[in-house]
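Archive entry: two folds, one per protein. Generate the first.
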Amino acid sequence: MKLFKFLLVLIFLLCFEGQSNASVFKTLKHPVEENPPVQLNFSYTQGFEDIMVVGTFEILVVGDILNHITGKADIRFISSELGIHINIQIDKDFALPPLQHKCLEWYSDQSKDTCRINFPIKLNKPDPDLSKYEPIRIFDIDFDGDDEIIIGTFGGNRGYQKYQIYELEKIDNVYEAIPTISFQGNAEIDIEQKTLTSRVSSDVCTSTVITYQSDGTGFKVMKKVERDYFDKDNPNQCLERVSKDLIINNDQLSSDEWEEYKRINKAKKKNALEPSPYLFPDNTENIYKTREDIYRDRKEKEKLCDRNRLDAEKVGKQFSDQDYELCLISSKQEWQK
């Protein structure tokens, strides 16, 4: 009898152990948009020192960029010690690295009926390299002495991931996550200069490079370089606009300002428009320079070389053949810059 009871207890324990170790699945069926909401719980295992991060991920797209499963997320940041309890919601393009390459056969072959995904999903400590996608990072990115939350998503320019910075601000004794600047995974951070440079480009003449610099309280726009076909009257001319010492959210011309700018300068009949003091303060440098202007400058320098050679006494020195050649070479180098 005792042996029988012992065997019953042993069987029960083995069954319980099997259930506790059993895998839990979420199942996808074709087409993905007709599935009931497929939600997966995720959390970090010792990912951040003082803040616990947990969330819910809902699948929207399978087989997305770089074979990720992307969707929306509800992320909770909790710290009893710091008094933080924050929710951040992401509407789309959010991804969890452990799901990369999952369900690819199901995605590419409509005849495959279902795809199973293990959950809950455990995430490891994020890689500090911004060129590598991480859904969540927490560190002092803007050199103000306080940590920020950085949320990563896909769908950036030229396939790069996008990052949004959230500043943790205490408002009425309650912490809130305030979105500030966003940047791409190809951004460069200079620790010594305390700058972050973000680059976005679409083609040979459509690009924006923004350099942010920390003033000790957060990032401010220090310089913005834009290349585009700004002048509607000359749609094939690639122009460059450089602005320095800018104030965030006030760092570029509106469409009305640009039309007014062109109206003021139209009478000058130049390919390179000169900045108007009416529109631009002294601390802003705006450069509109075309290849026609550079070519014209080169020709002027070549004429100067000719004049120096023909009138050597007037310029105060004998202009040898070698001097003349060096002068022409210098003008060509200016053209090639």
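Generate the second and append.
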Amino acid sequence: MTKRLFALIALLPLTATAAPVIEGVYIGHPSKRVHLESWDYEGTLQYGLTLANLNGESSYVVASKAKKIQDNQKVTFTTPENPYIVMESRVDENAGCLVEAKFSPNEIQLKSLNGCSQVEKSFNGNYAYSKASSHVPSKYWGKWGECKYPADSRDAAFLNATSGSTNGTYRFDVIGVGYSSPKEINLTGVYHVEGTQSVSEIKFEYLPNNKVRTINDISNTSTVHEKCRN
């Protein structure tokens, strides 16, 4: 009886520390980052892991789970098939690449398994959670655009805690947060465009009369938007 009691006590710390993984940005080598996010799709949890090298290389892997991923759990992610390549009757040679993610408190360890390119393999290693790079302060959040149109029918630039858009068309995931001044925020983000990813430097400059000027180094165009109430 005593032995059984000690055995149960020994298990308590393991079960007590189990908790859902923290979503956000994890940093490995100073130039390598991963962005973890989740969303609900028809009652299932979908996880997306954006792999980004500040030098420009990037990839995206996904996993479906019935329950939230916990610390001390291993999950196998895969690169989804690019529908734009399939529509052109071509074979997406990188679809099905398997990446194993081992989660522990505030850390992720990545290991590419089968069918991966050198891009995914280059992200093998350990990553630590960065609160500073994971969240844009709320005072910078907003929606800007042609506010005369209903919110659900207009393309609008926006910025929230973890993602945004400079033109309302393409979304980016935030992987780095910096400031030029109290009225200007400089972000590093990964754009998701037609099944591909690209790393960009993005600027939101806050102007008088609730307007904002956006610019990113992909298009290198500056646009001024009006802030919307919804």
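Annotation attached to the second fold: The helical segments are 2-16, 83-87, 118-121, 131-134. The chain is about 10% helix and 50% strand.
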